[in-house]
Amino acid sequence: MTWRRSGRWEDVAKIPFLDLTAATAAYQSEIDEAVLRVVRSGRFVLGPEVEAFETEWAQAVGVAHAVGVGNGLDALTLALRALGVGSGDEVLVPANTYIATWLAVTQCGAVPVPVEPDSTHQMDPAALHAAVTPRTRAVIPVHLYGLPVEMERILAVARRHGLAVLEDAAQAHGARRDGVRAGGWGDAAAWSFYPGKNLGALGDGGAVTTNDPAVAERVRLLRSYGSPRRYVHDVKGANSRLDEVQAAALRVKLRYLEEANERRRSVAGRYLSGLANLEDLGLSLPPVPEDAEPVWHLFVVRHPRRDALQERLTAAGVETLVHYPCPPHLQAAYADLGWDRGSLPYSEQLAEEILSLPMGPHLSDEQVEQVIAAVREAVLTLAVAVPQQARGAVAQQARGAVAQQARAAVPQEARGAVAPRLSVVR
Ligand SMILES: Cc1ncc(COP(=O)(O)O)c(C=O)c1O
Predict the structure, then answer these.
(1) What is the gyration radius of the CA atoms in the chain, in angstroms?
(2) Where are the alpha helices (DSSP H) in 25-177?
(3) Separation of CA 31 and ligand 1 centre (Å)
(4) Which of 49, 238, 306, 337 gets the highest tally of CB atoms within 10 A of its CB?
(5) Sequence-distant (≥ 6) Cβ neighbours of residue 394 within 8 angstroms
(6) pLDDT tens digits for 269-311?
């Protein structure tokens, strides 16, 4: 790849944001065998594979019970119902999360009450305390991007006000903080096994984990028509069962989860050192608290000219995404709650500035270096292009660096990477 005077990267190697085929290529035959085993067994829903996976997943999380369900949204919804959340209750949720966290609350007939994040992009315990009212029944901290929330402070607020705590761990399979694994703090945790997650199935899947046998039992009932046995219906349940094919594939992928997370950590480490010292030029890197062991579901940077940065990266063959470009309170779906633009300013600003770089075990070291080179070049160029933006002093110095950066060779091996597979990315 070369930088032309015309101001374009040419002969650009494509770096996909995510490539699920490459990520599992090393053990594809084990997945094939597992799927075939189910196909030949004649047992397709809630069978021995689901039971075995539930045992193995509970063990991996370090809790007593896991209950497989149809997807992450259902895991959240059914867990809230099992924790007693219902009509008229308020549930505290992050303002900056995927909309599923809010939808689960709504589906229980309760009202989501947004809480602004702190500088780690996670739910701010101080803001949480301020949002509690007499109707508050529960709180859902989300381990966003794979970084566990500072749960001790969240739990302290929850205990003081008697709130149930449901961890949304959809992005945090295997993450730890202060030695505790995600899913190990709350009354229950909800997991998504959507294909793009750190532990992803071959389709939709989810689970609720808990140490409370009553909560586990209740979710078991709710996931299957509220039916303890055939044609007996104790409560108005749902149909949200994990199927045997998903469970069998998840059992294989669970064996490789640690390895895949380790690879993500290595990619994140390279990004963190390769993109260091660009703060003055506007690029902020994801914060990593000292006691946290994130699993880097996403690697999210910030830049005041995010859209321009994204455009330049696209031109350089680097696929990026935004998680998420519009917070739930500004979506049409939640217009009825009356949270206008400006009401949650920090989340709104984040939505305009964040950008997710390619992340996953599919990335080679060469591809990571190529991303780093492209980001550095783009950030430096943007600083030169907008000298009046208080970055004028560094812009001068940046000009020379841009030229040098643009000349930097991109490894030959990084060329010809596979095409993006956008459809599986959330
Ligand atoms: C934070 C968060 N919560 C919940 C969900 C919902 O999971 P699913 O897509 O499996 O319903 C997701 C997945 O996109 C998520 O990222």
Answers:
(1) 23
(2) 28-41, 48-61, 72-82, 100-107, 125-131, 151-161
(3) 23
(4) 49
(5) 280, 281, 383
(6) 999 999 999 999 999 999 999 999 999 999 999 999 999 999 9
Are the C-beta atoms of 17 and 300 separated by less than 8 Å?
Answer: no
Ligand 1 atom with the smallest distance to the CA of 297 is: 16
Q: Whose alpha carbon is nearest atom 14 of ligand 1? A: 426
* Same domain, residue pair 32 and 146: yes
Q: How many CA atoms lie within 13 A of 4 on its CB side?
A: 10
Q: Which atom of ligand 1 is nearest to the CA of 426?
A: 14
CA-to-CA distance for 141 and 101, rounded, in angstroms?
Answer: 9
Strand pairing partners for 188? 166
Determine the structural domain holding residue 50 and report its residue range: 24-255
Would the CB of 147 count as within 6 Å of ligand 1?
no
Query: Are 198 and 362 spatial neighbours (Cβ–Cβ below 8 Å)?
Result: no
Exposure b/e, 82-117, CB count within 10 A at least 16 = b: bbebeeebbbbbbbbbbbbbbbbbbbbebbbbbbbb
Q: How far is CA 256 from CA 13, 263, 425, in A?
A: 28, 11, 20
Is 179 in the same domain as 209? yes
Q: Are 205 and 75 in contact (CB under 8 A)?
A: no
Q: 263 with 220, same domain?
A: no
Total number of domains constituting the chain: 2
Question: Residue 319: which residues within 8 A CB-CB, separation 6 or more?
Answer: 14, 15, 16, 17, 313, 358, 420, 422
- Domain with residue 316: its CATH number is 3.90.1150.10
- Report residue 4 as tokens: 């032309």
Residue 188: which of 156, 160, 218 has the closest Cα?
A: 218
Are 194 and 318 in a shared domain?
A: no
Contact (Cβ atoms closer than 8 angstroms) between residue 80 and residue 201: no
Q: Whole-model pTM above 0.70?
A: yes
**pLDDT tens profile 308-326:** 999 999 999 999 999 999 9
**Protein residue with least CA distance to atom 15, ligand 1:** 170
Integer Cα distance of 227 and 262 in angstroms: 41
DSSP output for 248-261: HHHHHHHHTHHHHH
Query: Pairing state of beta strands 90-94 and 136-139?
Result: parallel
